[in-house]
Amino acid sequence: MNMSDVFSEQEIRRGLGTKLVGKDIHIFDELGSTNDLAKTMASNGAPSGTVILADSQTKGRGRMGRSFISPPGVGIYLSIILRPTLPPGRLPIITLGSGVAVARAVNEVTDLKILLKWPNDLILNTKKAGGILTEGKIENDEMSFIIIGIGLNVNTEIEHFPSDLLPLVTSLKAEKGEWISRTALVKELLKQIEWIFFQLEQGCEERIIKEWSDYSTTLGKWIRVSSQNSVIEGLAERLDETGAMVLRRSDGQLERITAGEVTIIKDFK
Ligand code: BTN
């Protein structure tokens, strides 16, 4: 590891300039899962804007019960606690907005172009470079808190991954061909998440959905969406105003999808 890239609160705070995100920053050498700790801290009253960052995770979690491989010194494993004033139905848009924030941050720092696979896989050159796991607690029909968990393979050597995953995963360093400062990326991520969060709080959902669509690797493709109790295929036409995927099935019928695992079956390009 490049020693200048050991996470330090002082370095992350330098010139950060955010108003909310990074209000409190907690850094750990190793955690089970930053999302798990963030949830406990949020339940115990941690303020909106609290950031939890780990150099490594032993139980990093992904969507659909998957694990997120989190070796030390090379990746970003970060959770942000936010307390939105938006109604719980807006949670999917916050998730999509977080994807936009990561894509913007990666582009700003590395010039690499992340694409977003619905709902929130971070894709570089058709391979997965990271993902986002948003979790929340709803009380009395209000969002008590949400946790945005971001995992990014930054300087990760691909050999860290199990052999069956090798064709499917990548890291920013593998694609860029050079070492990338995790600290610079964390700072930009915090700035971009704050920007998106303030946009959403001001009701600019349409703008976020438009921007997500521009980064999308899913729209315009024939896809299969698998969830616990169904498998549906269709053309991924667009996102609706809540962030749900609108699929056109082969019989022309429209289906609104709010969760599931997407496989791209056919790319019409
Ligand atoms: C996915 O690929 O399905 C989502 C991966 C999310 C991983 C991040 S790493 C930081 C945070 N803590 C976790 O346990 N998971 C998220």
Describe the structure in your own words.
The chain is of the alpha+beta class and 269 residues long. It has six helices and twelve strands. The chain has helices at 9-13, 34-43, 91-110, 172-176, 182-201, 205-215; strands spanning 25-31, 51-57, 75-82, 115-117, 121-124, 127-139, 142-153, 221-227, 230-239, 245-248, 254-257, 261-267. The strands form two sheets. It has a seven-stranded mixed sheet with strand order 1-2-3-7-6-5-4, with helices on both faces. It has a five-stranded antiparallel sheet with strand order 11-10-9-8-12, with no helix packed on it. Helix 3 packs across helix 6. The longest helix is centred in the middle third of the chain and has 20 residues, at 91-110. The protein is globular and about 55 Å long. The N and C termini lie far apart (40 Å). 42% of the residues are buried. The mean pLDDT is 93. Biotin is lined by residues 33-35, 57, 60-63, 66, 68, 77-79, 131-133, 149-151. Biotin binds next to helix 2, strand 3, strand 6 and strand 7.
